[in-house]
Write a structure and sequence with these properties.
Order of helices and strands: EEEEEEEEEEE
Number of helices: 0
Distance between the termini: 22 Å
Number of strands: 11
Length: about 110
């Protein structure tokens, strides 16, 4: 779905290409330039990218840094061309108190 601020309306994105990720919950989705970066969710430790210009999903991001373990309920913010991930709840329902910087490229 896509929300247009000018018209304040939602429209379904039908023309998206690529393999959309399976449904996630308790994940993060942040804008990073002209891309949306989806991370984590209950029992997941994967990055997915949606290119807003090309309207294409991709899960083939190059990542530098330590890749964080699966988590939900975490915080993610854009930072310097990358993503900072903080905290959350791990796969074994443990509370996480770590901070990771991932630099991502499509």
């Amino acid at each position: 779905w896509e929300y247009t601020l000018d018209t304040r309306a939602w429209t379904q994105v039908i023309s998206a290409r690529g393999s959309a990720p399976s449904p996630h919950w308790r994940h993060s989705l942040i804008a990073l330039g002209d891309r949306l970066v989806l991370f984590g969710g209950r029992g997941r430790s994967a990055l997915h990218c949606f290119d807003l210009q090309r309207r294409r999903w991709s899960d083939l991001l190059t990542v530098s840094g330590v890749f964080p373990p699966a988590r939900a309920y975490h915080v993610a913010i854009p930072y310097g061309g990358g993503v900072i991930i903080f905290g959350g709840v791990g796969s074994a329902d443990e509370f996480l108190n770590d901070t990771v910087l991932l630099r991502v490229w499509p």
